[in-house]
Write the C-alpha cells for this entry.
Amino acid sequence: MGAITGRFAPSPSGRIHLGNILCSLLAWLSARQKGGRMVLRIEDLDTVRCPARYARQMEEDLQWLGLTWDEGPGVGGPNGPYEQSLRTALYEEALQALRDSGLIYPCFCTRAELHAASAPHREDGQLLYSGACRSLTPEEAAKRARTRPPAMRLQVPDREIGFVDGHMGPYRENLARDCGDFLLRRSDGMFAYQLAVVVDDAAMGVTEVVRGNDLLDSTPRQLYLYELLGLPAPTFFHGPLLLAPDGRRLSKRNADAGLDDLRERVTPEELLGKLAYLSGFNPGCAPKSAEQLIADFDWAKVPKTDICLPERFL
Ligand code: GLU
C-alpha cells in the first residue's frame, strides 16, 4: 500500500459544529493511523456564503482540536492554492476537456421550468432532470444564449456505477435512472461541488476521502467524473452523521453543537473523548487528545447508522 493522503474539505459557511468535528476527526484518525498525511482544502466555491473570516475561524478551531494538516492554508504545499475560490482555472480546464469530448451541454432551464417539468423525483426527493435541453441544436443553443447564460450539464450513462465504501460496504447507482444529467457549472458561473471536488482531490494527491454519509450518493457521480477525466479515484469512507437530540439533522442553529460556547467550557480532550465515545471507539468518556485516540480508532467500531447527541453534550 502506498502512502495515504487524507483531507479535510470543510465548507466554511459558519462556525464548525460537532458534526463537522466528528467528520474531521474520523478523516484525521483514519489517515494518521496508517501514517498518512493530511491536506486542508477550503471549499468556498460559494464565496457569498463562505467569507474568508469563517475559513480562518475554522482553521483556528481545527488547530485548537489538535487536528493538524501537512498541506493547506497557513502551511503551504506544492498543490496550492488550497481555497476553491482561487482554483477556478482548473475547473474551467476540466470543463473544457469534457466539452471537447461532447459530453456536456448548455442548459437554459429556469428553476421554475425544472420544477414544472414532469420529471420523476429521486428517492431523496430531489429533481431528476428531464433532459429538456439535451437535444438542442448548436444553433438553438446559440440563440438562447443571447438572452440567458446557460448552466452546463453532464450527460450521464444508463449504467450502474458502483464501489465498495470502506465503511458502508458496496454501493451502486444507475446514473441515468437514479441521478440524471447533473450540473457542472451553474448559470451564474459558479462551478458545481461535484466537479471541483474531483479535480481538487486528484490534483492534491488525495488517496482517501472520509466524509459524512450524506455524500454517499454523490460518489457514483464523482467516480464517473474521475473516469471521464482519466484521473485516479481515491478510496472512500462515509461515516455517520451526528443528529440533534430530537433526531433531526444538526445545523448551525443547534447552539449546543456549536463551538462558541463549548470552547469556553471544555478542553479539546474532553470534547474529542466524548465524541469518540459516542462514536464507539473510546471505551469510556475519558478525555483524550486526537493523538491519543489514534490507538483506539477502529472503523469496525464506528456505527453505520447516524448518532444522536445526548440532551447535554458536555
Ligand atoms: N465541503 C463539503 C462539506 O463541507 C465536503 C465535501 C467532501 O468531503 O467531499 O460538506
Observations:
- The first helix runs from residue 18 to 33.
- The mean pLDDT is 94.
- The longest strand covers residues 160-165.
